[in-house]
Design brief:
1109 residues, Glycosyltransferase, ten-stranded mixed sheet, lyase, S-adenosyl-L-methionine, metal ion binding
């Protein structure tokens, strides 16, 4: 595209010479054809070999937008065929150009329709995610219409030209109208969410493209219409005045071009001002993105200059074309004939344009001066002599420690002079790094840098957090001494819990900072043989490494990293048997993600013996490395294999002076022939070919996994301990102890049951939960359980206290549903029996409680995650126990496979992607896509199941200005009911670390205001929902669809007897609807405005004293 538009501009400049219009222009045309041909061939070959990549690219929210660049680049070749090739080679070139144009028009129309549809159907970007790149698949239709006008003007056959003209007008209308909508949306995005990021600031030039190209195209089409219409049978009834039709289109084209040129000038001003106000933006390849938009604007300006015979527009053309052509200035071939011709014509041309050129040049220099002064990004100072720090020159400069300069918003560790003498004993070898003094150090030079250590830890007890905090304080003191020796600034180490951080913020790319801060990662990790956050973290690192969309070493900007592991030698005596195995795994994957930046070997300590001593030794080594990094800016040089993820045979190879770098496969030992293959994704086709059993050579083993690096040579030969499926919550694990302490009874290895506080309250006649007010469920006959204690989210308001397992896939032992069903019933009844002696328990309700009538599948974890959830539900229904299943909208496949359930809940904790990520902290990377798919599945199931959206309101997270977003989600899923409930603060340290406190709990009046606003917005959208019931004590209100509004009353309650009858008569897959088992109307005491407290019970205060209504 960029090369093509430069060739077109060079050919059509208003002030031109032969060596430019027929020299440089043709040279760039040839270059454009060559580049287009080569990259087209590569692209076809790539997608032919790896067709699965094509689908991934088409549905990618960013990469798919650039499909429109292909027809635009092709159109520039067609234009130059008409401008240059046709006059030289004859009319047959025009015929070829005409055929190519039809192909280009079809491709343009295809991208204009399909890519936006995929964006609407698949991506569903929020307003903040909208960029000017959304124009890229649309603009090709405008470019094709302009090219059609050029081809139509050159066609000898009037009928062919007329068809091309009509098609071009249609393409122009499609592209301009569509672009106008996108421009309005993009402008709205800019006004709401401000300018794009520094890296993408050049995208503000893109809106100029459709306006400039549209202005040129409508002029060219009008110009062709003026000549062509009188030659055709168009306007048959007005044949004598056909010439007037051409004139109208011609003048209309110039009129519209002036309007679009002015609008493009506005966007150009926005772009220039945006860049001028953007401080320290980086230069990258994307900066060539302004070439095509400014180029087509120059063509529009040039056409206006030609048709209006305006010197102003001629000079404006030259000025606008300066930037796109600037890339060729250094390569201008000043050949003698062309140079002389330019000198001969220079005087005449200069006399005509000198005044406007001088004015434009002066203005341009002022703008350039302002731009360079205010927006130029200064390069980092790498090294400078310390003598420059002195105010007066010295004849014999002596090295002085560089004072630390305090930066804004940076809390550096103060520099203190160290007076402790160095140890005179033998030096301990600590890391295996060859520390060669650099030339800068020999010359007394130093580095000005700020280093920020980040300490990550994981824990399911209170030990590791305390160790991490103490270590951070000790490290801070040690770095004070290092700062004095190196002259560098060390920020206070920051301690981060892996269970609380968002992995994407730290382990896909390092977190960005406004200040020039360099990061150093440290890990303190216990190893567990149960499922903990460590497993999720390792899974994330592995997925990041294997994700083809992410660079091979995305964490390479880090200065380095090091890992210390805690283990127990009583259970795992050796490393091969599992001692500190998870710390070693983290070290391996970090080596791959950082590009071999292991700063210090993995430290390992026994929690029952010597961890303190081992941690101290490891810490000394880390401080030593940080001091070296502060001085040199790198980890130094190491032996072959230093920093590699796995142990290998490099050590023996390094000792061999006759090392063979390139070996023939026939010469390899048999044990190396069978090693694990780690290949690039581009080589998969070759691998499959080589593994053909019909091949002449011995087939190699199929690749075990796709890996994007080639670290290590003997990974397959290394003996690693094999482990079968683990129990999710073993009885001897801290997780088991913590959950039982919270009141859970663990059933099997992954299920749990607990008595709800509302069950205890109902037994004593002190009120029931909102389920009784809404759906008629007796709280004292309700069993709360879950067949899966594992979850895929880490919600900030969760009750789990950070102790239950998390994961994205089921990788544990699976207990049979019969064991779970019998276990949860037995444990529930045991807990009920323990309440018989509690004061105030009513005998009749205690007797009723010994017959479970309802099961709430919620608690912690994700019940739908259990592989046999349908069988478990069937067992409940067989004993006429109704079922309420709650899920977090992260497992769409399991949701789609779900069979009969009395009521199906989906937790809707946020209305947009960013809020959901912040409040639910999901583990799935495609969490938003999974969330959307679950809503679509719920919409399909709304006539099969009673579907409920549960909105948990957390003030400061998902309440403010999100009514519209929730209304859109309701419109998408069309649930039968919407429960809006204020969050219950659990008061755990987990919630506090996530930023959750009592201030985030909304008052009931705030929930009520939200409900009324949501009801109003739903009705404005034509969705008939109304307030069906409330339960003020639970801070909960129910909205219901008008499907459950009958005889002037809301009927959210359930006829449980009828539900089981339908299930037995028609089966789980039978044809029956939620309305078929709709129950009684909402009782008066539960209607909106009456509070929802059961009048049969007594309200009491915290001390059990009765409260009069």
């Amino acid at each position: 595209m960029g090369t093509g538009i430069v060739s077109i501009l060079l050919h059509n400049l208003p002030y031109n010479v032969t060596w430019i219009s027929h020299g440089l222009a043709i040279a760039f045309f040839v270059l454009n054809v060559g580049l287009f041909t080569v990259f087209t061939a590569i692209t076809i070959l790539r997608y032919a070999l790896y067709p699965e990549i094509w689908k991934a690219m088409v549905i990618h929210p960013a990469q798919s937008m650039f499909l429109g660049c292909y027809p635009m680049g092709f159109a520039t070749i067609i234009n130059m065929m008409v401008f240059v090739c046709a006059p030289a080679w004859g009319d047959w070139v025009v015929s070829w150009a005409w055929g190519f144009w039809w192909l280009d028009a079809a491709l343009s129309l295809a991208t204009c329709i399909t890519v936006p549809f995929v964006m609407i159907h698949q991506h569903r970007p929020g307003l903040q995610a909208v960029t000017a790149a959304s124009l890229l698949p649309i603009v090709p239709t405008v470019v094709a219409s302009s090219t059609g006008g050029i081809v139509a003007e050159a066609l000898a056959n009037p009928d062919h030209a007329f068809i091309t003209l009509i098609a071009s007008y249609i393409l122009w209308g499609i592209g301009i109208c569509f672009s106008g909508m996108v421009l309005a949306l993009y402008f709205h995005r800019l006004t709401i969410h401000s300018l794009p990021s520094k890296e993408a600031i050049v995208s503000v030039f893109l809106p100029i493209g459709p306006l400039g190209q549209g202005g040129f195209g409508i002029q060219q089409l009008g110009k062709v219409s003026l000549k062509l219409l009188p030659q055709t049978t168009a306007f048959t009834t007005l044949a004598p005045s056909a010439i007037h039709g051409g004139e109208i289109l011609y003048f209309l084209g110039i009129f519209l071009a002036l309007i679009m040129w002015g609008f493009a000038l506005v966007w150009l001003s926005f772009a220039l001002i945006s860049i001028a106000t953007m401080q320290k933006f980086p230069f990258n390849m994307g900066w060539w993105g302004f070439t095509f938009p400014l180029g087509v604007m120059a063509t529009c300006t040039g056409m206006l200059a030609q048709e209006l015979d305006s010197s102003f527009f001629r000079v404006a053309t030259m000025s606008t074309a300066a930037l796109p052509i600037s890339r060729v200035i250094m390569a201008l071939p000043l050949e003698q004939p062309g140079f002389k011709a330019m000198l001969n014509n220079f005087h005449d041309v200069w006399q005509e344009i000198r005044i406007p050129v001088i004015l434009f040049t002066a203005f341009g220099l002022l703008v350039l001066r302002f731009y360079l002064h205010s927006a130029e990004e200064k390069g980092d100072l790498k090294a400078f002599p310390k003598v420059l720090n002195n105010e007066k020159p010295q004849s014999k400069p002596k090295p002085q420690p560089k004072p630390v300069e305090e930066k804004k918003d940076v809390k550096p560790i103060p520099v203190v002079e160290s007076k402790v003498p160095k140890s005179s004993g033998p030096r301990r070898i600590k890391g295996g790094l060859v520390k060669r003094p650099s030339e800068e150090l020999k010359n007394g030079d130093g580095l000005a840098r700020t280093i920020r250590p980040l300490i990550f830890f994981s824990s399911i007890t209170a030990n590791t957090p305390k160790i991490a905090k103490d270590y951070a304080e000790r490290l801070e003191k040690d770095l004070q001494k290092t700062a004095a020796e190196t002259g560098c600034s060390f920020m206070v180490p920051e301690v981060l819990d892996l269970a609380e951080v968002d992995f994407d913020d730290y382990f896909i790319t390092p977190p960005k900072s406004d200040e020039p801060v360099e990061l150093f990662y440290l890990f303190l990790l216990p190893s567990y043989n149960i499922d903990t956050i460590n497993d999720t973290f390792l899974e994330h690192l592995q997925e990041t490494h294997h994700d083809f969309r992410i660079d091979t070493a995305p964490l390479s900007p880090l200065l380095g990293y090091s890992v210390f592991g805690f283990g127990d030698r009583e259970g795992w005596p050796t490393e091969d048997e599992g001692f500190c195995f998870q710390a070693k795994e983290v070290d391996k994957w970090m080596a791959k993600l950082t590009g071999r930046k292991r700063a210090f070997p993995v430290g390992m300590g026994d929690t029952k013996r010597d961890y303190a001593e081992r941690l101290s030794e490891w810490s000394e080594g880390v401080v030593d490395v940080l001091g070296m990094v502060a001085k040199t800016g790198s980890l130094g040089e190491g032996l072959p294999g230093s920093g590699a993820p796995d142990e290998s045979d490099d050590e023996s190879a390094a000792e061999d002076d006759d090392e063979v770098l390139i070996e023939d496969s026939e010469a390899k030992p048999e044990k190396l022939k069978n090693r694990k293959n780690i290949d690039d994704v581009e080589d998969l086709g070759r691998i499959m070919k080589n593994s053909n059993p019909d091949a002449d050579t011995k087939p190699s083993a199929a690749p075990i996994a796709v890996d994007f690096t080639t670290y290590g040579k003997s990974a397959a030969t290394k003996k690693t301990p094999t482990q079968g499926a683990k129990e999710m919550v073993p009885k001897n694990s801290p997780t088991y102890a913590s959950l039982t302490k919270q009141g859970y009874s663990i059933v099997g290895s992954h299920s749990g049951v607990k008595i709800c506080r509302w069950t205890k309250s109902a037994l004593r006649g002190r009120g029931s939960c909102y389920k009784y007010s809404f759906y008629g469920i007796n709280s004292h006959q309700c069993m709360e359980t879950t067949p899966s204690l594992s979850c895929s989210n880490k919600c900030v308001f969760c009750w789990r206290h950070g102790t239950n397992p998390v994961g994205t896939t089921w990788r544990w032992v699976v207990d049979p549903p019969e064991l779970i069903f019998d276990g949860v019933k037995a444990n529930h009844y045991n807990k009920i029996k323990m309440l018989r002696g509690v004061p105030g328990v009513r005998a009749e309700r205690f007797a009723e409680a010994m017959r479970i009538r309802h099961c709430a599948l919620s608690l912690v974890g994700e019940p739908i995650f259990y592989p046999y959830i349908n069988e478990f539900l069937g067992m409940l229904h067989a004993e006429r126990i109704s079922s309420f299943l709650v899920c977090n909208a992260q497992h769409p496949d399991q949701l789609a496979a779900l069979k009969a359930v009395t009521q199906l809940y989906v937790s809707i904790d946020a209305s947009n992607k960013e809020s959901l990520r912040k409040i639910d902290r999901p583990l799935h990377r495609d969490f938003w896509e999974r969330f959307q798919r679950c809503l679509e599945i719920l919409r399909e199931k709304r006539f099969k199941h009673r579907t409920v959206f549960r909105l948990t309101l957390v003030k400061g997270f998902n309440v403010d200005d999100e009514v519209e977003g929730y209304a859109q989600l309701v419109e998408k899923g069309l649930p039968c009911f919407v429960e809006i409930k204020g969050v219950t603060y659990c008061g755990t340290s987990t919630a506090s670390n996530a930023g959750l406190s009592m201030s985030n709990v909304p008052f009931y009046w705030e929930v009520s205001e939200f409900v009324t606003a949501l009801e109003k917005r739903l009705n404005e959208k034509g969705l008939k929902y109304g307030i069906a019931a409330e339960h003020a004590h639970s801070c909960c209100v129910l909205l219901a669809s008008d499907r459950f509004y009958k005889d002037g009353k809301w009927h959210p309650r359930i006829d449980y007897q009828r539900f089981f009858e339908l299930l037995e008569e028609r089966g789980a897959d039978g044809d029956w609807k939620p309305e078929d088992y709709m129950g009684e109307a909402t009782p008066e005491w539960a209607e909106w405005g009456n509070g929802g407290f059961d009048p049969r019970d007594d309200r009491v205060d915290r001390k059990g004293r009765k409260i009069e209504a």
